[in-house]
Amino acid sequence: MLSLVIPEKFQHILRVLNTNIDGRRKIAFAITAIKGVGRRYAHVVLRKADIDLNKRAGELTDDEVERVVTIMQNPRQYKIPDWFLNRQKDIKDGKYSQLIWQTLQCVFVCTVDSVKSYCLQCCLCSVKRCSQSQTDLLIS
Question: Which family is annotated (predicted)?
């Protein structure tokens, strides 16, 4: 017979970056519940934080959770390569970054707004057959 021994400080649900994480899953797969964090990125972050990949998410201490969050928010400071990040050469500032839930939502809204503006500009030009300067006046 197998019996599961649960440590005293086991947390069944962790709250990390505004996301509920199941404490019963292995940490490498549990943090993929956070938007913008995939399996490969999770493995790299956990290796940089020196956390055992076979550990359950509920077994993590507060210090370990804080290390993981810090590395996820600042991947370039911990020498995670640029080609590994999900936002390469941002259109506005040309920087490399890893977008996770908080910033991902903001960037999505900004991108949708810029696409709407671009489509509006193209539609106005095709209907009115106007120049770029006239279109800028129509939009503003």
Answer: Belongs to the universal ribosomal protein uS13 family.
Categorize the per-residue pLDDT at 140 as very low, low, confident or very high, splitting at 50, 70 and 90.
very low
- When pLDDT is averaged across residues 114-127 and rounded to a whole number, the result is 54
101, 18 in Cβ contact below 8 A?
Answer: yes
The token duo for 107 is 């960037």
For the domain covering 13-84, report its CATH number.
Answer: 1.10.8.50
Whole-prediction pTM value? 0.63
The residues that bridge with 13 in the sheet, in sequence order, are: 22
81: alpha, beta or left? (left if phi > 0; alpha if psi -120 to 50): beta
Report d(CA 135, CA 129) in Å as an integer: 9
Q: Which two tokens stand for residue 116?
A: 């709407």
Residue 15 φ/ψ, nearest 5 degrees:
-110, 105
Measured between alpha carbons, how far is 136 from 130 in angstroms, rounded to an integer? 10
Question: Quick one: tokens of 89?
Answer: 């050469």
Q: What angle do CA 132, 136, 118 make, to 5 degrees?
A: 80
